[in-house]
From TrEMBL:
Gene Ontology MF terms in the entry: arginine-tRNA ligase activity; ATP binding
Binding partners and assembly: Monomer.
GO annotation, cellular component aspect: cytoplasm
UniProt-annotated location(s): Cytoplasm
An individual GO BP term: arginyl-tRNA aminoacylation
NCBIfam families reported in the protein's UniProt record: argS
Family matches, as Pfam families: Arg_tRNA_synt_N, DALR_1, tRNA-synt_1d
InterPro entries xrefs: aa-tRNA-synth_I_CS (IPR001412), Arg-tRNA-ligase (IPR001278), Arg-tRNA-synth_N (IPR005148), Arg-tRNA-synth_N_sf (IPR036695), ArgRS_core (IPR035684), DALR_anticod-bd (IPR008909), Rossmann-like_a/b/a_fold (IPR014729), tRNAsynth_Ia_anticodon-bd (IPR009080)
HAMAP family hit by this protein: Arg_tRNA_synth
Protein name (record): Arginine--tRNA ligase
Short motif 'HIGH' region, span: 125-135
Gene3D superfamilies recorded: Arginyl tRNA synthetase N-terminal domain (3.30.1360.70), HUPs (3.40.50.620), Isoleucyl-tRNA Synthetase, Domain 1 (1.10.730.10)
Amino acid sequence: MKAVIKTLIDKAVEEILKEGGLEAELPEYTVEVPNNKDHGDFAANTALKLSKSLRKNPFDIAADIAGRMKHPLIEKCEPVRPGFINFSISKTFYTDLLRDCISSDVPFMSDMGGGRKVMVEFVSANPTGPLHIGHGRNAAYGDSLARILKAAGFEVMTEYYVNDAGKQMSNLGKSIYVRYLQVCGKDAEFPEDGYKGDYITDIAKELHKIHGDKLLSMDEKEALNLAFEYGLEDIRSGIEADLEEFRVTFQRWFSEKSLYESGEVEECLAELRTLGHVYDSEGAVWFASTKFGDDKDRVVKRQNGEYTYFASDIAYHRNKFRRGVRTSIDVWGADHHGYVKRLASAVYSLGIEDFDFNVSLIQMVNLIKDGERASMSTRAGEFITLKWLIDEIGVDAARFFYLMRDFEAQFDFDIDLAKKRTSDNPVYYVQYAHARVYGLYSKAAEQGLKWEKGAELHLLELDEEKEIIRKLYELRGIVETSAFHRQPHRVIYYLQELASMFHSYYYNNVIINPESPELSGARLSLCAGVAAAVRFGLDLLGVSAPERM
């Protein structure tokens, strides 16, 4: 509501300045809830801030602004000395809003995106092993951001970029092949840069179970490729299964290898060469990234004829645009921060108009269990899997905790707190608000109370009740700001505040009183509005809204 009032005030001030032929900047002012309830629902000090630049009495300025306030939200707007503007919100606005919240999710949704096509590409972990808890934060963030963007009116695509080409894939194939040889009883030395996790041995055993000793009689190159292909599919399908359990699905799994097979990498570099951004030197092919602010030019094709990851990444983003994507949001780990400028330079060097390239760098998560911090190393095989975390605390707690902090901040994931079933656990506290509403429904039915959702709402006259409805009104704005700043944690802050308001209201007031069926019905309707907002907000996070706890 404050945002609406500020918008109306800004418009009024702009009109006043234009009519007076004045060139003054819009001042910094506040819209606050006054301490004295007789002064209305909100008060603004705009006129006091404008008086000096306009050289007018602040009360007169306040009167001028108040006379221009026309909106269904506002029942009364009046100037008070020395120059405040008091606003009273229409009771009809409150009741209509609550009815809308009860009947559908539309009041919580926005058309801010205007249908612009956005792709959120996230997780995209190299398929060299199971997802670990660090990938979990990336997954929770990317999926929640996609849900929020959709609620904000964007057309959203989700994608997992499968890095199935390059040196790391070669190392994966070698690792599996050597373990296979060892399973066959052969004395084979494990590669120094191989993947040492037990899962590699498990894959080799399965490979042997299917093919027996067949690979021993094959050409080594052919055997390595078979080991790689089998291992890649095994790991990729395991990743997909873990993500599905984590309530994360993708519209497409895009193969890096396909960019080479289709010739798109070569086409992309040829286009950059035509534009004057690619050149040959020292037997290699280079992208002139210094032209775009990078500290040095970057190799896209090595002297040995192999392409770099950079080359395929450029081609991949060119491919995104050709599929109609107009905003690309890449969700990467914080260790990729040095790569952002490089890729952004390459993307924009293609001269693509109306294409936004954005990167969210997800900071590390530290797992705390029994007061101890766990360390991880994928290559050394020392890591805690996302699957373990899901089994340990459940999907709801895992997703909620991952999203509690800004993605740009590191945080400690407290396993012990996430497992608690008390109000100390933030996800339990929010979910319990939803379950408590359904508990009230059951209690009303047990007492034979007949009520209709959305009826007799004029009886909601307590300040607490108005504050809760105001909070429901804020959710659409939270969706918009969360989408604009790419910050799902704003939804969590909102839900915690709403849950706190509701729990307080529950403890301080009699919700169900058979002797006052109309008031009881109105209050149950208010509770229904809270449940709808909590349910909608939790869904944006990929967290369930239980009816019983």
